[in-house]
Amino acid sequence: MASQDGNEAVVMETEGSPKKEESACANLGDEDAEANEQSGQEDGGNSSSQCQASVSNGGDTDDGKETVDLKIIWNKNKYDLRIPLDATGASLKERIHSLTGLPPSMQKVMYKGLLPEDKTLREIKVTNGAKIMVVGSTINDVLAVNTPKEVIQQEVKAEENKKEPLCQQKQHRKVLDKGKPEDIMPSVKGTKERLPTVPLSGMYNKSGGKVRLTFKLEQDQLWIGTKERTEKLPMGSIKNVVTEPIEGHDDYYMMAFQLGPTEASYYWVYWVPVQYVDAIKDTILGKWQFF
Q1: Nearest by Cα to 176 from 271, 267, 245
Q2: Is residue 12 within a helix (H) or strand (E), and if so which, with residue range?
Q3: Within 13 A of 170's CA, how many CA atoms are on the CB side?
Q4: How far separated are the first and last CA of the chain, in Å rounded?
Q5: Of 75, 95, 208, 273, which has the highest C-beta tally within 10 A?
């Protein structure tokens, strides 16, 4: 019985040893772990391997996470991005922000459709090397698009000064060479009048067809009427009004309404009576004058 008890004691001690060492390893500091590693090497490496396994299993750093390499494409630019596979769509937007300067709230991120913010890249099955399309504008881009009318007018005026007079340009000469329309409203030089209560009629458009202008002040609209149809334009949508006196007939003007960002958007009207030119510009551009 004594020998059996002795054997049992040896077995119990053998089984208990790893638990003691494991507990000790969990409480080791950096210096103790280093000392333990040296001691373990002398003992055959058993203690070192057990402590190393404990430390690596407890790590939570990004280095231990599974990552995926992505190709971010925005505004004709390409960016390489490595990100944890378990990152959410919202986290991806933050990383895109750091790369492009595009705020997350202004991003539309596409990967096989619109990328959800609340799901991880793993859940939506993003693969290594995947191309992520990003659509959106920066704050500066938005401000540039919404340039005040005054700035646009200054830029247009500066551009006009560099060019030959409008009346001499080929696209306008083919209309002006038709001569003054017979039914045009009479002009009054040296005066400024309010807009008439009736439509301004008898004028030509760019194609040489007859056009009339009706100002619906109560609706804040300009109606441009031709034989075929009537265009109803909110005055706020007209970015600028370009005018120039007609050569040899300075009591009449040619006038363009800028409907978009380029000259291709100009709607030209010819033979506008001089006394209404300022009233038209002030009404459309929001500069009310009392005279």
Answers
A1: 271
A2: helix 2-26
A3: 0
A4: 127
A5: 273
Per-position DSSP letters for 121-170, written without gaps between them = TTTTTPPTT-EEEEE---HHHHHHHT--HHHHHHHHHHHHHHSPPGGGSH
The residue count for the chain: 291
Contacts for 2 with CB less than 8 Å, ≥ 6 apart: none
- Regarding pTM above 0.70, the answer is no
Q: Which residues of 140-154 are buried (b: 16+ CB within 10 A; e: fewer)?
A: eeeeeeeeebeeebe
Angstrom distances, CA of residue 271 to CA of 197, 250, 283? 19, 10, 19
H-state helical runs in 27-85:
30-42, 46-57
User: Residue 266: how many CB atoms within 10 A of its CB?
Assistant: 16
